[in-house]
Amino acid sequence: MVPDPEGKLPEESLDATSLKQCFERKGFSTQELVALSGAHTLGSKGFGNPTVFDNEYFKILMEKPWLSSGGMTSMVGLPSDRALVEDDECVGWISKYAEDQSLFFDDFKNAYTKLVDTGATWKKAL
């Protein structure tokens, strides 16, 4: 199974500049890139409760736990998540979302709606 057969998702190894360029080519701003990245709060990459959609992703990014000597690099986020906090423009949005969950929810909703409207295709359930 190919994880992204249509090539719509950016590589997880991209740096912040490349991520911003990738999203810009698809008509998304840096703010929308950061908001959509907040979906990474779900799952098992070390961002709070993996089944709760909240702003813990941004709070943890601001803490940079992978810089500790405890060997957390591979346990917290994707390389692309860690790259976002090395970019001043991205950090501005990360900081805002870490402080204001309602702002994150509103911006995520708008960016996700825009993403879906760009032509996501859905397979019929069997």
What key phrases describe this protein's structure?
Peroxidase, domain 2, mainly alpha, Haem_peroxidase, oxidoreductase, 126 residues
Kindly summarize this structure in a few lines:
It comes from Solanum tuberosum (Potato). This protein is mainly α. It has a single domain, classed as Peroxidase, domain 2 (Orthogonal Bundle), CATH 1.10.420.10.
Descriptive account of the structure:
With 126 residues, the chain is mostly helical. It has one domain: Peroxidase, domain 2 (Orthogonal Bundle), CATH 1.10.420. Helices cover 48% and strands 0% of the residues. It has 6 helices and no strands. The chain has helices spanning 16-25, 30-37, 56-63, 79-84, 88-99, 101-117. Helix 3 (56-63) crosses helix 5 and helix 5 (88-99) packs across helix 6 (101-117). It starts with 15 loop residues before the first helix and ends in a 9-residue tail after the last helix. The model has no long low-confidence stretch (mean pLDDT 83).
Label the structural class.
Answer: mainly alpha
Taking pLDDT < 50 over at least 5 consecutive residues as the criterion, the unreliable ranges are: none
Helix content: 40-55%
CATH-defined topology: Peroxidase, domain 2
CATH superfamily: Peroxidase, domain 2
Rg (CA only): 15 Å
The largest pleated sheet is described as: none
Q: Helix count, per DSSP? A: 6
Number of extended strands: 0
The CATH architecture assignment turns out to be Orthogonal Bundle
Question: Class, according to the CATH hierarchy?
Answer: Mainly Alpha
